[in-house]
Fold this protein.
Amino acid sequence: MSKRYELRFSGAGGQGLVTAGIIMAEAAAIIEGRYAAQSQSYGPEARGGASKSEVIISDEPIDYPKATAVDACLALTQQAADKYAGGIKPGGVLLIDSDFVKREPEGDFRVVKFPIIRTARDEVGREIVANVVALGAMVALTGIISREAGEQAVVARVPEAFIELNKKAYNTGFEKVKALLA
Amino acid sequence: MAKKVALLQGNEACAYGALYAGCSFFGGYPITPSTEVAEVMSVELPKVGGTFIQMEDEIGAMASILGAALTGAKAFTATSGPGMSLKQELIGYACIAEIPCVIVNVMRGGPSTGMPTGPSQSDVMQARWGTHGDHPAIAIAPSSCQEIFSETVRAFNLAETYRMPVQILLDEINGHMRERIELPEPGDLEVVNRQQPTVAPEDYKPYDHAQGDIPPLASFGSEYRYHVTGLNKAADGFPTSKPELVDAEERRQLRKIEANRSLIEKNEEYRLEDAEVILVAYGTISRSARSAVDHLRKDGIKAGLFRPITLWPFPEKRMTDLAEQARAIVVPEMNLGQLILEIERVTRRVCPVAGIGRVDGEPITPAQIVAKVKEIL
């Protein structure tokens, strides 16, 4: 593993991508005790518009806090895929929601796909946890943090009444990608 | 015992730093990208017996913190761009009436409404000269979330020590960025409290230079009664237009900074020992510059970073000394050339000084800095 690893979570405003980034950063920085910097960029809209959240994870202090060559990118919408997949470095990986990203971005990276939002709605039971399904999938895809650290960070972040729902979402996403990679 | 750690936004770290410093009053008006400072203060201040008030606008917010500060509170507000412009008249009032307070400006694109969610560093000169008239200024530009916490504590210390407004300049990136920070325990960081008058109430003068350049400030509402005005004033606080009194007061106010530069100024240096190219960068962009230094060194170019933490007063003596050894100075900043003007002034251009300006809402990248340095050499 190189010392600096860059993740990007992208989609539309309101899909919980900033939260997914925060949970990833908490797992790395608080639970695993490494260095992490989470940042975001979004438009003035409260909902909609292209939104992204970036997480840099490193074993050394992080200087530049934004992505420069993305190792792993998530795109939940076509607009986000079109806008943000270009930053993926050669040999990197892109995870897309196959229901919403019909035109796959092309480049020197691997594309992994499954219907993320549909999985949240039909298999987990609530569409609102699609971001946590995506987080579990990104953990399985990258291996950059341990499965347990990710789950612990999810549990620490969500209200008590929603812990089981979110654990299910996280693990469903993790298993989906594990099966795809097998 | 292990330190308590948390993943905090820069804006949150700023608010917790203020609480650590003993801030008990926040008057504000929410504005992106500074709003999280107000959010945290609104939740935390009531828990410690403090007061949070959302005012009708940024002018009212600034007025409210001056009133609170005069009664003895450590007072604080947060804003950005258009809000900072609105506060300028009352910042001048705080300068002339010598009222301690802290203002955090989370810089966004401008002028006017500009780009609310885009980062910028274009208020550097406003922080020095935004309000009219000759006046002292302290402005601090921290880089990491940890430093935002500790420099916010220091901002309160400086405000209380020098009886004046202190500005903290963040930007949309380090205001919203989250990093792991170790939360200091009480006692880990120095906290300075306001000097109280020692004379009897009937002998008290709020601007008595016989007490030194920084006369103690009594709390309004206590047995000490005095007059506060935005007019030029004499030692007793009442207006005067006597030339010799006006002149002495104006000069004393500027002397508070000039005579104490070594106690106020702060900077960090990275790989400067043998540097031929000096990058000068602050806040978020200093992180790009630090990364650029490492890249340039790998390519055999002796680069180093000079990072002013106080932009005002600018650490000019150290900058001037370093310029003597340099072949070039490069100043990347998210504006079209502001701090570079001060660097050109203090170094008297003993070596070429080049800027990298960016105002498109995107940060200056390490690669952009590396390319510029190679172009110059």
